[in-house]
């Protein structure tokens, strides 16, 4: 199997004084005509095949997707990065890609939804627009179920809709047999002039990658993860023309972008920040945790399922999203941990919670006719419904004083939640007006209780520069208050001891 050997240059460090960032890394975008076309299976298969051949790989996910990114991380054995022009803008997106792309391997970007599907009727922020930004050829996955010559019309339509989009090849999915594959190949290559670079059989993908609400089951919860690698390889091996796919990836031209100015971050040395990490809470962008680590803070994972309490000497807590509802019974049974979270929150510990974190901090989760007690740091319950209660990009305007963001800050993020806050007589104060999206309640988000920020919006540190700054500043303030309180307490004890001796 041929190795990828395009003319490559090393990627400069974003901190160096340079005029441009540039890279000529081999890359491709795996796209589809719609959601559930087979993009994830093809992406995982290519990553696993490349690694098996000794080719280094790096994976990226278009859009604000945690679960697909987790699977790409699993297949590539390194953190997959999200590329999102809506959240970050084109320049930051290109910079993030260049800073993480491998100069001597395969860089694979998995698209989302259909090739031209974006935030509006014009396809703004679509997979096609990302591919053009990265100057990457597209490997188009086409669901061939019960169709033959019409596939050529669909692919030709993609080519005609935007001639600047370069389709480097097609992968046929759900092919029913040799005759079906032959007709599809002849049709595509004669009408479109696009090579067919693979054909996968008509298998039920859910037997490999089962789904539920919010998307695929996460790698941490897959029932047969130990055998999945070989199952995927058996499905794609010999059915993908890897030599031609690698050649297409290696034909991508160099790209350049302006380096982004990085803002100063609060010095985190001496701070201890925990984040909840287990099979119930897996939704974290790598850049968010890295932003805290780069400050010098001590970042520690803690499990809400198995830990009996938060770590000693904690200065802040970050609770990301996940599936607390599917783990609700186990979470509610760990009452010692829930009590620790509640007690720390009531004592003023800075807590930043997103979506699933909001649910953990609530009084209870209602799901499937049952109610499961949670930490009770927030004065309401949440209920999980059968349909999404908020789904898509969000835009927030900070309009009230709060510990984490300056007033008038505009926040872009995303939400995808099946839960909503159960109606109550009154909700705690909120910091944000929802300009786009659903939020927590009545076009508001960013619930404030003590030093707790709880929101349904997920933010990305590369898009929301002030996020890490706000959390680190509050952690530093809390640490100083705790140290002063300890000194005052020791002084009081010393005085009382002296008075006792005098008596």
Give a quick precis of the structure.
The chain is an alpha/beta fold and 503 residues long.
Describe this structure in words.
The protein has 14 helices and 26 strands. It is α/β, with parallel strands linked by helices. The strands form six sheets. It has a nine-stranded mixed beta sheet. A seven-stranded parallel beta sheet has the order 4-3-5-2-6-7-8, with helices on both faces. Strands 19-18-20-23 form a four-stranded mixed beta sheet. The termini are far apart.
- CATH domain topology of the largest domain: Rossmann fold
Overall geometry? globular
* Uncertain ranges: 5-20, 498-503
- The fraction of residues in strands falls at 15-25%
Mean pLDDT: 90
Topology readout:
Elements: E1 21-23, E2 26-32, H1 39-52, E3 57-62, H2 67-76, E4 81-83, H3 85-88, H4 90-100, E5 106-110, H5 127-134, E6 138-143, H6 150-161, E7 167-175, H7 178-191, E8 196-201, E9 211-212, E10 215-216, H8 225-236, H9 242-250, E11 255-257, E12 272-276, E13 281-283, H10 286-294, E14 298-302, E15 316-319, E16 321-322, H11 328-333, H12 335-346, E17 351-354, H13 356-361, E18 364-367, E19 370-373, E20 382-384, E21 390-398, E22 410-417, E23 419-421, E24 430-436, E25 444-449, E26 452-455, H14 466-502
Parallel strand pairs: 2-5, 2-6, 3-4, 3-5, 6-7, 7-8, 12-14, 12-15, 15-17, 17-26, 18-20
Antiparallel strand pairs: 1-11, 9-10, 13-16, 18-19, 20-23, 21-22, 21-24, 24-25, 25-26
Helix pairs in contact: 1-2, 1-8, 6-7
């Amino acid at each position: 199997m041929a190795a990828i050997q395009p003319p490559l240059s090393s990627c400069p460090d974003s901190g160096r004084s340079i005029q441009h960032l540039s890279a000529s890394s081999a890359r491709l975008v795996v796209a589809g005509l719609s959601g559930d076309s087979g993009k994830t299976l093809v992406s995982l298969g290519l990553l696993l095949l490349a690694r098996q051949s000794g080719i280094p790989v790096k994976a990226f996910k278009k859009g604000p997707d945690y679960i697909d990114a987790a699977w790409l991380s699993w297949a590539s054995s390194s953190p997959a990065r999200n590329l999102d022009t809506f959240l970050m803008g084109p320049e930051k997106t290109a910079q993030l890609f260049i800073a993480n792309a491998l100069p001597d391997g395969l860089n694979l970007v998995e698209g989302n939804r259909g090739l031209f599907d974006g935030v509006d009727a014009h396809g703004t922020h679509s997979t096609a627009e990302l591919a053009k930004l990265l100057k990457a050829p597209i490997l188009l996955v086409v669901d061939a179920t019960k169709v033959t010559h019409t596939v050529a019309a669909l692919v030709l339509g993609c080519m005609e809709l935007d001639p600047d989009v370069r389709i480097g090849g097609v992968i046929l999915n759900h092919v029913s047999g040799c005759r079906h594959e032959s007709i599809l190949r002849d049709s595509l290559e004669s009408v479109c002039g696009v090579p067919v670079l693979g054909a996968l059989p008509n298998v039920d993908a859910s037997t490999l990658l089962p789904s539920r609400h919010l998307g695929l089951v996460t790698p941490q919860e897959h029932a047969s993860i130990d055998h999945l690698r070989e199952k995927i390889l058996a499905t794609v091996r010999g059915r993908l023309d890897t030599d031609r796919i690698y050649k297409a990836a290696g034909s991508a031209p160099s790209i350049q972008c302006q380096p982004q100015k990085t803002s100063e971050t609060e010095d985190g040395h001496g701070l201890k920040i925990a984040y909840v990490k287990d099979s119930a809470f897996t939704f974290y962008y790598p850049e968010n945790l890295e932003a805290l680590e780069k400050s010098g803070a001590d970042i520690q994972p803690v499990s809400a399922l198995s830990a009996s309490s938060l770590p000693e000497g904690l200065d802040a807590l970050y609770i990301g999203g996940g599936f607390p509802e599917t783990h609700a019974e186990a979470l509610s049974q760990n009452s010692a941990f829930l009590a620790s979270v509640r007690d720390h929150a009531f004592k003023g510990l800075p807590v930043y919670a997103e979506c699933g974190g909001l649910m953990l901090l609530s009084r209870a989760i209602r799901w499937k006719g049952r109610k499961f007690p949670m930490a009770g740091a927030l004065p309401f319950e949440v209920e999980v419904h059968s349909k999404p209660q908020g789904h898509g990009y969000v835009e927030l305007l900070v309009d009230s004083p709060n510990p984490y963001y300056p007033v008038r800050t505009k926040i872009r993020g995303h939400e995808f939640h099946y839960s909503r806050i159960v109606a109550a007589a009154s909700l705690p104060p909120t910091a944000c007006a929802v300009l786009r999206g659903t939020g927590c309640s009545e076009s508001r988000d960013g619930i404030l209780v003590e030093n707790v920020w709880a929101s349904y919006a997920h933010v990305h540190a590369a898009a929301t520069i002030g996020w890490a700054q706000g959390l680190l500043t509050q952690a530093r303030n809390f640490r100083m208050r705790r140290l002063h309180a300890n000194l005052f307490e020791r002084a009081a004890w010393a005085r009382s001891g002296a008075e006792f001796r005098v008596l």
